[in-house]
Amino acid sequence: MVIDSVCTYCGVGCDISAEVEENKILKMFAKEEGVVSQGRLCIKGKQGWDFVTHPKRLRNARVRKSFLSANAALFSDFDMDYLEPVDHDFYEISYESAYELAARKLKSLTDEFGSHTFAAIGGARTSCESSYLFQHFTRHVVGSPHVDNCARVCHSPSLKGMRLTIGEGAATNPFDDIYETEFLVVMGSNTTEGHPIVANRMLDVIKQKGVELAVMDVRRIQLSKSATHHLSIPYEANLMMLNMMAYVIISENLVNADFIAARTKGYEAYKQSILNDPYANPDYLLQIPGYESLREEIHSVARKYATRKSLFFWGLGITEHLDGSYAVMAITHLALLTGNIGKRGAGLMPLRGQNNVQGTCDVGMLPYYAPDYQPPKEVGMMTPDLINAMIEGKIKALFNISEDIAHIHPNQNKIHSALKNLDLLIVNELFDNEITKFADIIFGVKSAYEKTGVYVNAERRLHLSQPFIHVTMPDDWEVIAEISKRYGKDLGVKSSRDVWESVRVDAPERFGGASYEKLEANRLRGLQWPVQDEDTPVLHLHDFRTKDGLGAFRYKQYEPRGQIEELLKGPEYEGYYLTTGRVLVHYNNAAQTNACEKLGRSHSEDILLVSVDDEEFFEYKDFVVLKSQYGESAPLRVKVSSTVKKGTLFTTFHHAKSRINFLFGDEYDELIKTARFKSVKVEVIKPDYLD
Question: Which of 21, 182, 488, 503 could form a disulfide with 309 if both were Cys (CB 3.0 to 4.6 A apart)?
Fold first, then answer.
C-alpha cells in the first residue's frame, strides 16, 4: 500500500509517499507529480524515517520521582493506575494519570501565584492544529499571554522586517518561480544543505537556462561552485552590504521609477539617507583588509539584480544577528526599488528552518500575535524574557512542545539554571533529549509520520499529512485537550479536523477556504495561503498587504562593530569569529535523525572548520575547545578548509555533546529578540585532558 503525506523536516515541506505493509514503513519516496518535491527527495526525506521504530522512542508518559515526592500532599487522594520505574529519576505512568498530575499541579500554581506564572513554548515540528490549540489553551483556558515558538531562534526578524515594509511576513512566490526568474541572489543560506530541493531548482536553471546566481555569505558554500558571483563578506556585515546594493541602484539610476511612484512611500527620504551614508558607499570596503575586492562585486550584483527579473533568497545567516530585522527590511527595499516583487519570477523568499515555522506563527503561537496576525488581548513575553522570569521566580510552570530549548537556544548555562528553577516543566517529545532531563512530566507523542495535520512550508503552502503507521501515543493536541479538560475546560475537540475547523474560524483571512476536503484533494500539490475559493501562489500582485496598500521605505544605517571594527584597526587581531550552520543529514537537535541509522552514522560529531590561512596556528591541534565570555564548548575535532577566511571558524550545532550553544549569549535582534547565533568572538584553547 502506498500512502501520501508530507515531509516535516526542513521548510521546503516536500510531498512524500511511503510503501507500507502491516503497519511498517518499507520505503520512502516522492511521486513525479508532487509539486514541491518534483519526484526528488533529499537524504532526510528518503532515509530519515526509521526513527519511528527506534527502541529508545518515548512510547509512554513519565513522571519524575522527586516531583511526586515533593507534591505528595497535592496528589494524596489520587490513585494512579501504575508506577513502573524507568531509571533512577523517572517512573512510567499511564497517560490518564499524567494528564491528571499535570493539570493538578498547574492549577495549584496558577491558583496560588496567578495565571501569568505559566508559559508555553511550542516547536514547529508539530502541526498547525496542535500549535493553535496550544496557544488557545494558554491564552483562553489558563489565562496567560506567554506563548512563543521556535521562530524566536530563526525567522522572527523575517516576519518583523517584511511586515514593517510590505505588510506580510511570508514568501511572496512559489518555489517554481525559480524557473521563471532571470537572476538569483542567495544570502545567509546554505541552500544545498538546509533546503536541498529548492537548491535543485536553482541548479536546474543555472545549467539549463544560464541563469546567473550571486551568493553572499561569510564562507564559501557548495552553491558557490555554481555561482557567477560569490561574495565572502565580513561577519555581521549583512545590513552594510544590502545598503551598498541600494546605493549602487540609486546612484546609477537603476531604480524602477514607475513602480516606486505607484506602489511605495518614503522613497525620497530613503534615497537621501542612502546617498549620505558613508557605510552605504561601496568605496568603504576599500578600508577593510582582505575584503577590498567586494567593492566591484557588489556593483556587479546590484546592477544585475536591478536590471533583471530577480528572486532574493535568505536564511538564518540574515536573521540571527543584532540587526536581522533591519537586514530583512533592507532586502525588501531592494525589491521595492527595482519592482522585483508582485509578479512571477521576481520576489522575496525567506527559507524557513523547519516545515511548520510559517504555520506555527500563522496560527498565533507568538506572544504579540493571535491567529491570522491579529493583535492579542494581551501581549506576552518573548522567550529570552521568559528565561529571565524563570530565574527570577516569576514564571513557575512551563509547558514545552517539541522545542529542545536546553540544546538549541543560546546561553545554555543560563537556560539550564532557569529550567532548574521551575516548579513544573511539562514536555511533549519523541525521544529523551536535553529538555527532558529537566522535565517533571513527559508525554511521548506521535511524530508527523503517525498523525493527521496541516503543515505550512516556506512558500505558504499547506499540506495535510496523514499517518503512514498507527501508534498508541497521543498527538500533541490530544495531550493539550486532556490536560485542559482536567484543568476545568473541555475544549470539545475529538479529532484534528475539529481543531482545524476552529483554525479556519479564527484565521479566516489565510485559511478560511482551506477545508480538509480541499486539502485531501490537493495532497500532492497543497494550497498556498490565503486560501478562499482558490489559493494564492503570488502575493502583492496589485497592492501590498499594508493599511494603505503601499510598500514603505524605512532606512536603517549600518553601525560598524565586531570583526569589521577590528579589521579597520589592522589585518591582525586576537581570537576568532565563529558562525554555525547545518549539514544535510541532520535536523536541528538531531533527535530524530540521530535515531536513523544511516543518517546518524554519517555525521556523528560536530566538526570545526578552520581556514587554510590559519593552518599554522592549528597545526598539531587535532582537537580544540572554544571559549567565549558565556561558556565553553566540548573538545571539537579540527578540519582545515578553504571555505572559511582567515580569522573565522565554522561548525554545526546538531550534537548536544558539543556544547556549541553554550558559547552564545543574550545579544539579540533589537526589534524582535532573535539571538545572534551567526557571530561570536571566541578564544581557542586546548582541551583540559592535554594539560
Answer: 182
Q: Is 336 within 8 Å of 544 (Cβ atoms)?
A: no
Tell me the C-alpha distance between 184 and 62, whole Å: 50
Q: What value does the mean pLDDT take over residues 392-419?
A: 96
Tell me the residue ranges of DSSP E strands in 514-585: 527-528, 551-552, 576-581
Rounded Cα–Cα distance for residues 396 and 116 (Å): 9
For residues 652-678, average pLDDT: 94
Name the one residue in this structure whose C-alpha cell is 531548482: 201
Q: How confident is the model at residue 154 (pLDDT cuts 50, 70, 90)?
A: confident
* pLDDT at residue 316 is higher than 90: yes
b vs e for 299-333, b when ≥16 Cβ sit within 10 Å of the residue's Cβ?
bebbebbbebbbbbbbbbbbbbbbbbbbbbbbbbb
* CB neighbour list of residue 334: distance below 8 Å, 6 or more residues apart: 242, 245, 246, 249, 305, 312, 340
Residue 678 Cα to chain centre, angstroms: 13
From the CB of residue 69, how many other CB atoms can be counted at a distance below 10 Å? 8
Instruction: Give percent of the chain above pLDDT 90.
Output: 92
Q: What is d(CA 389, CA 369) in angstroms, rounded to the nearest whole number?
A: 21
Q: Residue 423 CB: number of other CB atoms within 10 A? A: 20
- Report whether 631 contacts 412 (CB < 8 A): yes
Q: CB under 8 Å to 658, separation ≥6 — which residues? A: 605, 606, 633, 634, 636, 651
